[in-house]
Write a structure and sequence with these properties.
The chain is α+β, with helices and mostly antiparallel strands. The chain is 22% helix and 53% strand. The chain is built from two helices and ten strands, in the order H-E-E-E-E-E-E-E-H-E-E-E. The strands form two sheets. Strands 3, 4, 5, 6, 8, 9 and 10 form a seven-stranded antiparallel β-sheet that branches. The longest helix is centred in the first third of the chain and has 31 residues. The radius of gyration is 27 Å and the shape is rod-shaped. 22% of the residues are buried. This is Late embryogenesis abundant protein LEA-2 subgroup domain-containing protein.
Length: 184
């Protein structure tokens, strides 16, 4: 009878240890894998494909930017996003826009693709800052985009998330190159 009591308390200790161990495993899983974060959207590289200054007006131009968009998904499930737009701004005014087609970024991966943005200064007529910036050879632009979609974990859990991009860049008109590309 004395041995039976020791055996029961030993079994109870093993069951309690197993329950504590399982609780720790579930807690670690819930705090790491199940934590869903917003994806990061950034410009990787931006290139000036062509730049055409106006021959009649010194404060007018057309150009095409080829921008590499990078969508970084740090989640353990894929991110499926809807079609969206990336807008290029000069002085807070839109000068160009491109479509980002709907797509899917795999779990823990970064998806990269190119977007062509046609920029024209037609909407900025009479802007003295634009004339000064073109004369200086440096054009300061900014960009904005928002990708909305869902992160899906284990084909069961779906959570709405969105990634936003806000970048600034300086176009060197003489070299037809981008300088000081900063995204946050």
């Amino acid at each position: 009878m004395k041995g039976e009591g020791k055996r029961n308390s030993k079994c109870l200790a093993y069951v309690a240890a197993f329950i504590v161990f399982q609780t720790i495993i579930i807690l670690v899983f819930a705090l790491t894998v199940m934590k869903i974060k917003s994806p990061k959207v950034r410009f990787g590289t931006v290139a000036v494909e062509n730049f055409t200054p106006s021959t009649t007006n010194s404060s007018s131009f057309d150009m095409r930017l080829v921008a590499q968009v990078a969508i970084k998904n740090t989640n353990f499930g894929h991110f499926k996003y809807d079609s969206s737009n990336v807008t290029i701004l000069y002085g807070g005014m839109p000068v160009g826009e491109a479509v980002i087609a709907e797509g899917r970024t795999k779990a823990r991966k970064t998806q990269k693709f190119d977007v062509n943005v046609d920029i024209t200064s037609d909407k900025l007529s009479g802007n003295t800052n634009l004339t000064n910036d073109i004369g200086s050879g440096y054009l300061k632009l900014s960009s904005q985009a928002k990708l909305s979609g869902k992160v899906q974990l284990m084909k069961v859990i779906k959570k709405k998330k969105s990634g936003e991009m806000s970048c600034t860049m300086t176009v060197n008109l003489a070299q037809r190159a981008i300088q000081d590309l900063k995204c946050n």
